[in-house]
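Researcher: I'm preparing a figure for a lab meeting and need a structural model of a single chain. I don't have an experimental structure, so a prediction will have to do for now. The sequence is pasted below. Please return the structure as tokens so I can convert it later.
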Amino acid sequence: MKNDVESKFLLGVFEKIRQHGETVNRQYLLEGITAYTDHDGYTLFIEDSLVKLRFGFHNQYIFDYAKEDHKAAFEKKLKYIDATY
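Model: Understood. Here is the structure written out token by token.
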């Protein structure tokens, strides 16, 4: 599978959500995107109501979504956060 999202981009967006988002139950919320880590901090989760992204060991990531349109809209939100914050 070809990686179409850069690890540096995902880590940067996660950090922006963490820095600028609202903290709710050990999760961060910004622009409709929720970001959090697992208990040891090695796996990052970034999600909205339609798409879940798990980013972890060796910079591997997995998207979970029902429709390609959902993934495209999710990526657009991540790019917005990256450009705005």
